Every structure is written in structure tokens, then in C-alpha cells.
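About this split. The held-out portion is used to measure sequence recovery: a designer receives only the C-alpha cells and must propose an amino acid at every position. Recovery is the fraction of positions where the proposal matches the reference. Here is one held-out target exactly as it appears in the evaluation file.
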């Protein structure tokens, strides 16, 4: 089987990963190759050399002065990304050696042009509906002539898209061989991009209400938010330890009593929670999006985001969560959250698509 994987172009697929989408792509490609699948990858510049990825790039982007001066001219990075995916899809129209195209990007063109490609297509939905992607999926789903499939990274995400078509579920996975159990500790952990929707400031409030030290890890995705809302909170038991790779994050989770997950939006899946469980560390999470599919009563505590005092509710949840068995957290990760499970489920869907079975 020959599978083409289209990654998102905004960030390279390399550790330390920019987010869950990049992590999923890297582990999916690596897992498929371990199973003997021939994989061709298109990804952003600077991706892991081991992926042997073709760079999603339009080079050079030739625009006349007249085109640049047009009032409809969009920002050039957007235009470059658009033409990069256009270029790839036009190439795939001429390929008869591909069985499945797995669109793991957030761009609308691979969906809009899927029917023009001889291979069957599968699109993974990583986010709630967006104004560019939703109409493209709606049009493609109404075309019975093409063998294609939609997959959400959680039941929550799948349900958000089912008004435009049939959406299956393949939950994200983590490499349980690299995310190993740790001894635990007394401090709390938080990891993710430093952006408003991940709301690390809420984690700080919960940690302070619980009287615990907190270590924040992750890249700064919004410098203004970092300077206004996070930097003033650092010190007095709260530390930003930087953007850690898998080894560093596994050590952070494994040496912590509880991991806080505090999204200020409906988290499509909740990869940080799965990573924490693999390290044997219980989770306290705001009950938003797909997190209730990752964490159960034996492995964490879900906090109502509408609680009138989130800091106090989070502090109470920490006391409950740290009494949970670390072994149960690890077992749930092995059973429900592993990369091997994820890769196997995708491979089964590829095989169904290549045989012309969409259901």
C-alpha cells in the first residue's frame, strides 16, 4: 500500500512539536512505516529529516505588480500556503501509484480537490468547523462518485462536523514506549502552547489556591498574552520551564503529582492528558471538548468550567486526583491512548478505502 500524508504547512513536523497535529503526523508516519506501509509525506519546511518529507512550498511565488496592488490581495503567507497545496494536489492528479491520500492538514484545498485525484482520500478533522473547510467538506460529502472518508480525533469533534457529512472517529495516540511512568511528586504540571485558548493563567490560579508549586512548559504562541497574563504570575512557586521535547515533558509529568489541563475552548481531543496518563500522572481538567473521552473517574477529575470559583474548584480537584492510583492512569493510556491503537485503526480504514469500501 502506498499512502500520501499531507501535513499542515504552518509548523514543521519535528520535536519539540508545535502541537498535537504535528505530533500525530510524526507518529502516524513512523508507525505506518514500521508496519511496512510505503508513505510519502508533504510537510512544512524544517520537518524531521527522518520523515523524508517533501516541503510544502511554492518557490518562487511569482506575482506581478498589478496582482500585488489589487485590493483583493491577501497576506502573502496565506497565498503561499494556498498555492503550495494547489501544487501538491495537481501533482497527485497525475499519480496512479497512490492508494490513499490522508489529508492531515487544516487546509480546504485537499478536500475541495479530492475528487480530481485517482486515489481514495481520508481527511482527519482536528478542529471545530472553520469557514474555509466546512463548505469544502459539505460539497465533497455530497459527491457520491468519489471514495472518501472523514475522521474526527474524538467523538466530540466528529459530532461537531456531522451536519456536513458522515464522520468516523479515530482518537489520537501517544507513544507509550517513550512516555514512561514516573515516581510522582508534590508539584503540579501544565503543558501546551502559551496562548489564551490554552489558558495557563487558570492553571496558575488553581495551583496557588491548592498551595502547590507549578511548572509550565510550552512554546510561546502569543507573545502579547504571555507578557500581559503569564509573566506577571511567574515566581512564588510558578515557573515556565520552556518548550520541552518528549523526553523533557515525560520527566516533567512523571515527577508531578497532577497535571492541570485548562482549555478556554472546546479541546478537540486533549493530547496532553493522554501523555500525562502514560506517565502515570492523574489529570485535573476543565470538562471541555474531548477531554471526557481521555480521562475517566479512575484517572482524573473533570472540573465544570462554569464553576463560580474555578481556582477553588481546581484546588479541590487536585486533592482528589492525587489520591488516584498511578498504575490505573498508565493502564488506561496503554489500553485507550496508544499510538499502536491509532495506527492500526487508520490502517484498517485505508484498507477499506483502497478496496472501495467507505462505510
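Reference sequence for scoring:
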Amino acid at each position: 500500500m502506498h499512502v500520501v500524508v499531507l501535513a499542515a504547512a504552518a509548523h514543521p513536523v519535528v520535536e519539540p512539536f508545535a502541537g498535537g497535529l504535528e505530533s500525530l503526523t510524526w507518529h502516524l508516519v513512523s508507525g505506518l512505516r514500521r508496519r511496512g506501509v510505503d508513505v510519502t509525506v508533504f510537510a512544512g519546511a524544517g520537518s524531521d529529516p527522518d520523515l523524508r518529507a517533501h516541503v510544502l512550498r511554492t518557490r518562487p511565488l511569482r506575482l506581478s505588480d498589478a496582482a500585488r496592488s489589487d485590493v483583493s490581495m491577501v497576506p502573502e503567507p496565506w497565498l503561499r500556503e494556498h498555492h503550495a497545496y494547489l501544487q501538491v494536489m495537481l501533482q497527485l492528479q497525475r499519480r496512479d501509484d497512490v492508494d490513499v491520500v490522508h489529508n492531515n492538514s487544516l487546509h480546504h484545498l485537499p478536500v475541495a480537490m479530492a475528487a480530481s485525484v485517482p486515489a481514495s482520500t481520508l481527511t482527519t478533522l482536528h478542529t471545530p468547523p472553520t469557514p474555509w473547510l466546512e463548505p469544502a467538506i459539505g460539497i465533497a460529502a455530497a459527491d457520491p462518485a468519489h471514495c472518501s472518508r472523514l475522521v474526527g480525533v474524538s467523538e466530540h469533534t466528529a459530532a461537531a462536523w456531522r451536519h456536513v457529512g458522515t464522520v468516523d472517529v479515530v482518537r489520537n495516540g501517544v507513544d507509550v514506549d517513550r512516555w514512561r511512568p514516573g515516581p510522582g511528586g508534590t508539584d503540579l504540571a501544565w503543558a501546551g502552547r502559551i496562548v489564551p485558548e490554552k489558558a495557563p493563567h487558570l492553571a496558575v490560579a488553581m495551583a496557588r489556591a491548592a498551595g502547590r508549586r507549578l511548572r509550565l512548559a510550552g512554546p510561546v504562541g502569543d507573545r502579547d498574552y504571555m507578557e500581559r497574563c503569564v509573566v506577571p504570575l511567574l515566581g512564588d512557586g510558578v515557573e515556565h520551564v520552556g518548550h520541552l521535547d518528549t523526553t523533557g515533558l515525560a520527566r516533567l509529568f512523571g515527577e508531578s503529582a497532577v497535571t492541570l489541563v485548562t482549555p478556554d475552548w472546546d479541546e478537540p481531543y486533549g493530547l496532553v492528558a493522554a501523555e500525562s496518563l502514560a506517565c502515570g500522572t492523574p489529570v485535573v481538567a476543565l470538562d471541555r471538548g474531548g477531554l471526557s473521552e481521555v480521562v475517566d473517574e479512575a484517572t482524573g477529575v473533570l472540573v465544570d468550567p462554569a464553576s463560580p470559583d474555578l481556582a477553588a474548584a481546581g484546588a479541590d480537584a487536585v486533592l482528589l486526583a492525587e489520591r488516584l492510583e498511578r498504575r490505573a492512569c498508565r493502564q488506561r493510556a496503554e489500553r485507550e491512548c496508544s499510538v499502536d491503537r491509532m495506527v492500526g485503526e487508520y490502517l484498517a480504514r485505508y484498507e477499506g478505502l483502497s478496496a472501495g469500501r467507505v462505510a
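Annotator remark: The chain is about 40% helix and 15% strand.
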